Amino acid sequence: MSKENLTATEFQLSVASAPHVHSGRTLPMVTTARIIGLLPAAIMAIYNFGVPALRVMALAVCTAVVVEWICLRLIKHGDPRRNLHTIGLGLMFAFLLPAATPWWLVIIGATITIALGKYVFGGMGNSPLCPPLIAWAILLVSWPLLMSPAAMQLTQDFVDPLARLKYFGVAAAEQIPWQDLLFGRQIGGLGATQVLGLILGAVYMLGRVAISWEIPLGYIVGIVCASLALPDTAGPLFHLLAGSTVFGGFFLATEFGGAPTRPVSRLCFGFCAGVLLIIIRV
Questions:
Q1: Mean pLDDT of the chain
Q2: Can you list the alpha helix ranges (DSSP code H) found in 143-262?
Q3: What are phi and psi of 272, to 5 degrees?
Q4: Who has greater pLDDT, 61 or 120?
Q5: Taking 80 as the threshold, does the pLDDT of residue 108 lie above it?
Q6: How far, in Å, CA of 146 to CA of 139, rounded?
Q7: 21-68: per-residue pLDDT in tens?
Q8: What are the backbone dihedrals phi and psi of residue 159, each rounded to the nearest 5 degrees, phi first?
Q9: Distance (Å, rounded) from C-alpha 149 to C-alpha 146?
C-alpha cells in the first residue's frame, strides 16, 4: 500500500466521540460568569452596610481558597489555581451572613462550606446539597443569636420585612416601600437582600448561559401561585423582593450538583422550591 493510500485510510478510519461540535460553554466560563453575577450585589452590600460587609466577604473568600488548597494537598489531586468555583462558594456563603458577623464565625462557616459541603462529597458537582447552605444551617443551629441579622445589625435603621410580616401581619408588611426592598434597604444577609444587584447578576448569567432558565422560572411561578393560594400572607411582589428570595432562586438553587439536569425536572424543582418557601414563611 502506498503512503498516500495509507494516509487516506488512516483518515477514513479515525473516529471521535460525540459531540463533534463544541457548544463553547466551558467550566471556567460558567464559574467566571457566576462570580461576575455576584459582583453587583457585593457592591450594593458595601454601599448599604459599609466596611463590615467588605470584611466578611473578603475573609470568607480567602478562607475558602486556603481550605481548598489544604483539601487538594490532602487528596493530592487538582490545581486550585484553575478552580474559580471555590471563590464563588465563599462569596455566596458570605452573602448569607449579617454584615457584623464575628471573624471567627466567618472562618468556621467558610471552612465548613468547602471541607464538608464540597470535598467530603468528592469535589465540585458531587455534593447533593448546596455547600453554602450546609454551612449556614450548621452555624444557625450552633450560634443562632450571632446568625440572626436582626440581632447583629442593631446599628442599622433598616427593617426586617419577614419579621414585620410574622409579628405585625400582612398589612404592616405591605406598608414597606417596595423600593426599599429592591435596593437592599432591609435587614438580612449582607448580599442576599441586595435584590437589584442580584437581578442584574442573574440577567448576566442567563445571557452567558451560566445557569438554566427553567429553575428560576419554576421558582417564581411557585412563589406567585402559593402566595395567591394560601391565606393570611402577603402578595407575590412582597415575597419576591423580601429576604433572600432572588438569591435563592437564581444562585443557590442553580448550584452544581444539587440541581436537576432535565428541563422538566428543573421546572418541577424550582416550582417546589418556590412553594416550600411560601409555606415555610406562612
A1: 87
A2: 149-152, 161-168, 170-174, 178-182, 195-207, 214-229, 236-241, 245-247
A3: -65, -40
A4: 61
A5: yes
A6: 9
A7: 666 677 788 889 999 999 999 999 999 999 999 999 999 999 999 999
A8: -110, 155
A9: 8
Q: What is the rounded CA–CA span in Å between residue 210 and residue 91?
A: 17
State whether the Cα torsion 222-228-233-234 is positive or negative: positive
Q: What distance in Å separates the CA atoms of residue 179 and residue 177, rounded to the nearest whole number?
A: 5
User: What is the residue whose three cell numbers read 395567591?
Assistant: 228
In whole angstroms, what is the distance from residue 230 CA to residue 205 CA?
A: 32
Phi, psi of 127 (to 5 degrees): -75, 130
End-to-end CA distance of the chain: 80
Per-residue pLDDT tens over the stretch 226-240: 999 988 888 999 999
d(CA 229, CA 231): 7
Grid coordinates representing 33 are: 460568569
Q: How many residues does the chain have?
A: 282
* 110, 93 Cβ separation under 8 angstroms: yes
Grid cell at residue 110: 467558610
| CA 256 to the chain's CA centroid | 10
User: What was the pLDDT predicted at 21?
Assistant: 64
